[in-house]
Amino acid sequence: MQRTEFEHYLTQLLKPHQIKDYAPNGLQIQGSDTITKIVTGVTASQALIERAIVEQADAILVHHGYFWKNESYVIQGMKYERIKALINNNINLFAYHLPLDIHPSLGNNVQLAKLLNIEVTGPLELANPLSIAIQGQLAQACSGEHFSETISSKLNRRCLHIAPPSNKPIKTLAWCTGGGQDYIELAAEQGIDAFISGEVSEKTTHIAHEMDIHFFAAGHHATERYGIKALGEYIANEKGLDVTFIDIDNPV
Predict the structure, then answer these.
(1) Per the confidence metrics, is the pTM higher than 0.85?
(2) For the chain, which domains are there?
């Protein structure tokens, strides 16, 4: 597939124009005109680039790319080495951040729900159909301890569980993968039993205790593996391209 055709396909699929983001979505580094082999991963780290070179990939497709808001414009050091490796090996870099979080079937949030057997019931921001955080429910209520074990088992990573003093059963949940811990207050205000995110802040403990809501920090990387993996599998099935998901382990 031609690079321009592939970028148009991703634009139609992920609709990045619908949401304001912290980095450019789409083609970030130009490489080969023709794309036949794609490597997908969570972050465009040097380790992922090196694996893509070994795989002789024409393109890398990630959730976390480059050129974030408020970062330095200077291309030197780590950023230089990454971009140099991409250009020297004629590898395209495509990145989709929030559009991949919120996609209704391939997104990180929906894929996490699928993994944890949560039924999605709607956006957490009730008036916003493009809400970054969403909400849902379990088929059967369970204890916080049981759900913590479920998350840890499914994600293969020990999650942090902050239980409220009531330690109430969990039936309703809201979640935002990655660094979405600040949505916990909105979830608590709606009377939701638990909130899941990738990261945790110092203040999150106090919010969980004082607003009577369970909180689970399951890892930024761990909660965002599944959207980019699902996207790659979808592309392979739809377009017949050779797509390989490479998981560069990250304990955060």
Answers:
(1) yes
(2) 3-96 (3.40.1390.30), 103-219 (3.40.1390.30)
